[in-house]
Amino acid sequence: MAEKGKQTDGQRRTAEASFLGLADRLIAALEAAEPTGARFALKQWDSASLERPEPPPACSDMPEALAEPKPLTGGGRSAVLRATRTGATTEATIEKAAVNFSAVSGQLSGATAQRIAGTDSDSPAKFTATGTSVIVHPRNPHVPTVHMNVRYLATESEAGESRWWFGGGADITPVLPATPETTSAESAAKFHAALRHACESHSSVADYPRFASWCDRYFWIPHRGRPRGAGGIFFDAMGVHSQSRVQIPSWQAGLDFCLAVGAAFLSSYTEILQANSGKPYGEAERQAQLRHRALYAEFNLLYDRGTRFGLEIGGNVESILSSLPPLAAWD
User: Which of 137, 147, 192, 202 does the annotation list as catalytic?
Assistant: First the structure.
């Protein structure tokens, strides 16, 4: 049966089309919220067009997965918006945003496969994956940075075991302390309320308290001893198999929930953008924003599993690192 075994071509195509459609909606909504008229620069890419650096000389200190990325097939689309001030009375709402879509296949190395639920950790595995991610770094410090991604992965081990699962999440990162003078707490509450509603509307799949706690644990910065932001939800390895971390009734239920997360993100964050982008701020608030962006960059480069997975499989580096802020400060 398809639910318990190998994914069908129809499932793969449906997931790809659904996540590409979500990417289109994210781009349209963010462009509509940007008063300067800036638009996303779209770039289609495929595996054949990726620049692949020569591997370094043998080095025992370099992880196998990073030293020898496996060739991919497939491709995707990167979309980046960079807005600037256009006049004395017009300031950009979005300093940088990225919306990425990919649909790729390849082979996981033993090292990478060990960290992927549903694979045979003792041998390589073939995989197909598709997903959409969005990151927004607003100009106004009163508007939080925000991230969302949804993904679908199917694997087949050398022993012939086939499994699939969904994953994703969304989190909000206010850069100013939650005080009566800022809207940080209000924005975080609005964002969480939308995600809670998405979970409660798909109760056969999602558990908001569990997913919110999972998010808090995932987006923790160990070397700083603090969270990246104000949380959200996180879920991984959502499937029907015994190794799934989240058991769900069907493939369709997993896809429907992923799309609901995308819709909840879109509705709540566009409201936050519109409500707070015109609030006054000064240099002190701007510097606080840049320092908080430094934490964001540290987490994404050191701990984020999506970043690491993309680099290990030889993905599009430009898209993988597009989540980094345009400006940050360490002091």
Answer: 147
